[in-house]
Specification:
The structure is a homodimer of 452-residue chains.
Chain A: H1 5-22, H2 26-35, H3 38-46, H4 50-59, H5 65-69, H6 74-83, H7 86-93, H8 98-106, H9 110-119, H10 122-131, H11 139-142, E1 149-150, H12 156-166, E2 175-179, E3 185-190, H13 191-196, H14 203-206, E4 214-215, H15 220-230, E5 234-238, E6 244-249, H16 250-268, H17 281-308, H18 310-315, H19 317-322, H20 325-346, H21 355-385, H22 388-418, H23 423-451
Parallel strand pairs in A: 1-2, 4-5
Antiparallel strand pairs in A: 2-3, 5-6
Helix pairs in contact in A: 1-2, 7-9, 8-10, 15-16, 16-23, 17-23, 20-22, 20-23, 21-22, 22-23
Subcellular location (chains A, B): Cell membrane; Membrane
Function (chains A, B): Acts as a magnesium transporter.
Membrane topology (chains A, B): Multi-pass membrane protein
């Protein structure tokens, strides 16, 4: 739970803002907003109900619109842009880096994007089209094009003088890239190296030749895992011919890491990754209904399985009472396995070499867990309902369902990945269907065989 | 799903390693391991079943033990260290940075840690105790102490000559810190600034005075959210008297961001954050049983609610068949709300100012969803079971339970946070208990009133 120092400051600002808004003191709201850095204003907008958000946006100085928009999450940003005049959006986008521009434009609904492109002059449109030219979620999409390149045959002294002449360096510059006459990347020189190198040395003498370069079409989650694994701060991006086309910096990667990790959690709960906490009621209702519809179908399927045993249930009400225990335990155990395997796959730990080992490990755990909870539930039921046979039946069903849960939890993500379906998205609902059906079938089926 | 270029390379290495291991070609295994960077060896160890992991560790050159240990996740690292001789562990720890040392030592079980500290000489023990002197999960714990400090009154020229003389700079140095005679932080100078500044200027002329410093006792998740919000690459750490004590770099923060985001997902599925995908069966069974035990209790509670209506159930088996639909829908809807609020809290978006708005928004969604699915399920049941009254009863129960689910999902995390309980850990199980009990009670209770 993050609640930083700054967050407390933002909270008091938010309270001041709210007070000023409610009392209609728009002048002080405007003043309060001007004093905050864009990332804090973005945070306040994201923490506000949609109506307050619109009011606040009206009071923000247009000069800061671009800086604030690039800090917002997709959903919130789209909501704001859709309500802006296309000409104002164009103004706000003018100052954005190519990577932020690409992210902003690509997440907009098609008609809104078209309106904005139509309002641009030729130069801006070209820049926008370039930003959008790489596929979404690729290295090209998140890269920046403001690299500083050096030639291998110049001396450090010349480089230092050139940089001093240039004055300001692009934000987060930690590396200079060395390219030959055809723009091919031949090495890198960390900024700190320029400070420690002999001034008479040539760039080629001090550069690292074996630097890793990211292909421009690499998916962004692969980029993120490279950054994470090798603790990079930035990396050059090259095209098919190994020509330098841009650089990716860690601050863009951090967003991807956060989003990737959140994606599984949100998907498994049947939510859109990007769902805005403060979205309007109708929008949220619509988004969440897909998952509820799927769940209704699986709940009806479970009911149909029970329906097969109507004769048994009508004679033994006790079975109806206990009917939910076995499916529920299977669901929890199966979801544990499923979550573990999904995370292992996301971290790149699960692969063809070890998946068989992993499946058999999870089945062993399922068997052990099944045995433990079978004995326990049998004792509880035998004591509660004074019926040993019933205890044995529920124990058997529990064992069967726990093993089924482990098998489903371990194999489903692997199968879904092969079918190119996101396991986080539908894995949990398929798993629950399996554990419900197997659990009910095992319990009521065995009971019908032995008690009727 | 991350499966990087490098990962494919690692996979082929892993296959080669596996083959060599199985055939007992330990010489080639040793050679393969020497050729890989430590982060890749760590990745291979994390992707291996526990027995293979032990065999591989034996074959790794002792000189690389430290570099590899610091790349491993807590669980895997602890498993390896526990099996090593304390003297070998001490050797491996010697080269580690203070932040990695702190993380490694603090996660060890107490007796193992004691054995290792006992095997250290006085100097190493002092270093270890210093690393452990800040509380776990604080800024002091994850900081590095290898800062480069400058005095405000020297010229850039002197600084440049000093650095050139020094030769190598610490890893990931992007900023120099300016301190006065009493070590108080008075400003920062980005490395790039040294390249562009006039050489005759003084440090105090070019430094940024208004830099943010992190208090040494700040919780690490707050540090992470500051880095994320302001796109920092590094930040100075100061003690209570604003004296510079170290620096935190983004690569350490990336791990915290990933772990924080994963924490909610793993906790909500009843797993330990750090659970090793390839842990031995018994260890995993033990860890997961807590959650299963809790679930068994809630499943029994739901059964007891059904038990209250035994008379009704024994007369109307159809109720037994449909008894799971309402609780199941409530569970899904409630978990959507719960997950959204937990994420909103983690991002710092949910606070005292907007929580009431959020709760009423979620209840509105619950009401709307309840109405939609009530009408749908009523139609399905009326058609399937040819019983309109039954349809109306299940619709009523659905509406009641969806509203209860929304209320529970929105308020539980806020209440638990106030009670200082982690909502991700127990929120989901409490929620499901509520939706089960309310759902069964509403359905069977209404049915008893109107059908009996």
């Amino acid at each position: 739970m993050a609640e930083a120092l700054v967050s407390k400051y933002v909270q008091s600002q938010l309270r001041a803002l709210n007070g000023a808004l409610i009392n209609g003191q728009f002048v002080s709201v405007r003043k309060l907003l001007l004093e905050l850095p864009p990332s804090d204003v973005a945070h306040i907008l994201e923490s506000s109900p949609s109506r307050t958000r619109d009011e606040l946006w009206e009071l923000i100085d247009g000069d800061f619109h671009g800086d604030i928009l690039e800090e917002l999450s997709d959903d919130v940003r789209n909501g704001i842009i859709t309500k802006m005049l296309p000409a104002n959006v164009v103004d706000a986008l003018e100052e954005m880096d190519t990577d932020d521009l690409a992210v902003t434009l690509s997440s907009l609904p098609e008609p809104v994007l078209q309106d904005i492109l139509d309002s641009m002059d030729a130069q801006d449109r070209l820049r926008a089209e370039q930003a959008l030219s790489y596929g979404e979620e690729t290295a090209g999409f998140i890269m920046n094009t403001d690299t500083i390149t050096l030639r291998p045959d110049v001396t450090i002294d010349v480089v230092l003088r050139y940089i001093r002449l240039k004055g300001e360096l692009p934000e987060n510059t930690d590396t200079f890239y060395v390219v030959n006459r055809t723009d091919n990347l031949v090495g890198i020189v960390p900024v700190t190296r320029l400070l420690t190198a002999e001034t008479e040395a040539k760039v080629s003498d001090v550069m690292d030749e074996e630097s890793e370069a990211i292909p421009v079409h690499m998916p962004d989650d692969e980029v993120a895992s490279l950054f994470e694994r090798y603790n990079w701060l930035s990396a050059p991006v090259v095209d098919e011919k190994h020509r330098l086309v841009g650089r990716i910096t860690i601050d863009d990667v951090v967003d991807i890491i956060r989003e990737d990790a959140e994606h599984s959690m949100m998907s498994m709960a049947g939510l859109d990754d990007d769902e805005d906490t403060f979205a309007p009621v109708l929008q949220s209702t619509k988004r969440r209904s897909v998952w509820l519809a799927v769940n209704l179908v699986t709940a009806l399927m479970a009911a149909m399985v029970s329906d097969l045993f109507e004769a048994t249930l009508s004679q033994l009400a006790v079975l109806a009472i206990l009917n939910t225990i076995v499916p529920s335990m299977g669901g929890v155990a199966g979801n544990q396995t499923l979550t573990l395997v999904i995370r292992g796959m996301a971290l790149g730990h699960v692969n063809a070499n070890n998946s068989r080992w992993l499946i058999s490990k999870e089945i062993s755990i399922g068997f052990l867990n099944g045995a433990i909870w079978a004995i326990l539930i049998a004792s509880v039921i035998a004591l509660w309902k004074q019926d040993y046979m019933l205890g044995i039946i529920i124990a058997f069903a529990m064992l069967v369902n726990m093993i089924a849960a482990a098998m489903a939890g371990a194999t489903l993500p692997l199968i879904m990945k092969r079918l190119k379906i996101d396991p986080a998205l539908a894995g949990s609902v398929i798993l629950t269907t399996i554990t419900d059906v197997v659990g009910i079938f095992a319990f009521l089926g065995t009971a019908t065989l032995f008690l009727m």
